Amino acid sequence: MKKFLLSILTAVLFLSACSSGDDNEEQVTGKDAFDRKGMLINIADNIVIPAYQNFASDMAVLKTTTADFVASANENTLLNLRSAWSEAYISWQTVSMYEIGKAEELSYRNFMNVYPTNTVGIEANISAGSYDLTTVSQQDEQGFAALDYLINGLSDTNTGTVEFYVNSSDGAKYKKYLTDLVERMDMLTTAVVTDWTNGYRDTFVANSGSSATSSLDKLVNDFIFHYEKHLRAGKIGIPAGVFTTETFDNKVEAFYKGDLSKTLFNANLSAMQDLFNGKHYASTTTGASFSSYLDFLNTIKNGEDLSQIINDQFDLSRSKASSLNEDFSDQVKTNNTPMLETFDELQKNVVFLKVDMLQAFSVRVDFVDADGD
Q1: 6 contacts: CB under 8 Å, gap ≥ 6
Q2: Which run of H or of E encompasses 153?
Q3: Which of 173, 194, 256, 353 has its CB 3.0 to 4.6 Å from that of 153, i.e. a possible disulfide?
C-alpha cells in the first residue's frame, strides 16, 4: 500500500514538473493561444531592424557631411550638413521608441535626443576643449538638439554661422566639438544595430512568454512609455504648458531650426501607429501586431473593436495636429490652443493603450507615472 501511494505521489510530481516552463517559453492557455513568437519575429525582422539600418545609413551620411564641413566650412557645406541632420532627425523618429536591449543598456535615447539642449554647457565644453560625453550629466550637451544649436542656432545668417567655424581663435574648437558629437551618435547607433543583428534579435524572439521580463511585456511598456512621455508630453504637452501654469516655446524639438518640429512629430506618430499595426518598415505590408493580437482576443470596448478605436484615435490626433504650424515654438507663442487640443486627442489614446490594451494582454505597467495625468 505504501508503495502504491508513493507511486501516485511520484507521478503527480512528475506531471507537475512537466507542466511548468521558464519565462522564454510561450505558455498557451485558454483563449490566449496567439502566436506571440510570430508577432515578435514580424516586429524584429520587418520593422525594428530595417528601421535601425535605415537610420544608421542616415547617420553615416550625417557623419560624412560633417567631415566635409569641418574640412571646408562654407555656406554650401553648411547647407549640406543641415540637410543631412534633418534627414537623420526624421529617421530617428522611427527608432526612438525601442529602448530595449542594447539601447536600454546604453541609455541610447537620452544621449541622442534630450531637448532643450544646454547651450551654456555646450559653450563651456567648447571653450574648455575637454569633456566626457559618456556621463549622464552631459546628456543635454549632445545629440540632435545640440547639433541643432551648433548648425542652426549660432547665428541668424549662414555667413555668421560659418564664421564660428573659420574663426582663427575658436574655430578649431567648434569643429572638434561638432565632430565629437556626430561621431558619438554614430558610434552609439552602430552598437545598437550590431547588437540587434548579431544575437539580440534571436534573444528577443525567443523570449516570447508572458512574464514581466518577456519581450512582449517590455516592448509594450516601452511603446506606451514613449507614446505618453516623449510623443504626447515631450513634443506637445510640455511646450504647451499642460503640466504647469506657463508655456515653454523654447522646449520644442528642433527649436533652432524652427520649421521641423511638426515634421518630427508626424514622423514619430506614424511610426508608433505602424508598429501598433505591424506595418513593415517602408512598406504597405502588415504582419502580426498589437492590433491583430487585440483582434484575436476579440477585445471590445463600447461595442467596437479596441484595435479600431485605437487606430481611429491615432488618426484623430494626426488630423488635429494638421492645423499646427510647422514651427511648434511659433505655434505656442502665437496661438497655443491648437497645441492643447492636439494634446487632448493624444491623451485619449493613453487610456486605450495603457488601460484597455494592457488589460487585454495581461501586461502590467512597469514605469512610474509622474506627471499627474
Answers
A1: none
A2: none
A3: 256
Q: How far apart are CA 240 and CA 261, in angstroms?
A: 13
Q: How far is CA 295 from CA 42, 136, 301, 314, 358, in A?
A: 17, 42, 12, 17, 14
Counting runs of H as helices and runs of E as strands, what totals does the chain give? Answer: 19, 2
Q: b/e per residue, 91-116, with b = 16+ CB within 10 A?
A: bbbbbbbbbbbbbeebebbebbbbbb
Residue for grid cell 555656406:
75
**Residue 100: closest CA among 275, 255, 264:** 275
Contact 189, 55 (CB under 8 A): yes
Strand partners, 138: none
Helices 171-195, 119-128: axis angle to 10 degrees equals 110
In sequence order, which residues have a C-beta less than 8 Å from that of residue 249 and are 6 or more positions away? 239, 329, 330, 332, 333
**340 CB-contact burial (10 Å; exposed 0-12 / middle 13-18 / buried 19+):** middle
Please give the Cα distance from 60 to 53 (Å, whole number): 11
Cell 511646450 identifies what position? 239
Cβ atoms of 86 and 260 closer than 8 Å: yes
Q: What contacts 124, CB < 8 A, 6 or more positions away?
A: none
Mean pLDDT to the nearest integer, 168-188: 97
Q: Which helix (H) or strand (E) holds 300?
A: strand 300-301
Q: Which residue has the cell 514580424?
A: 42
> Residue 220, SS3?
helix
Phi, psi (degrees; rounded to nearest 5) at 29: -135, 145
31 pLDDT band, cuts 50/70/90, is: low
For the whole model, what pTM was predicted? 0.91
Chain centre to alpha carbon of residue 287: 21
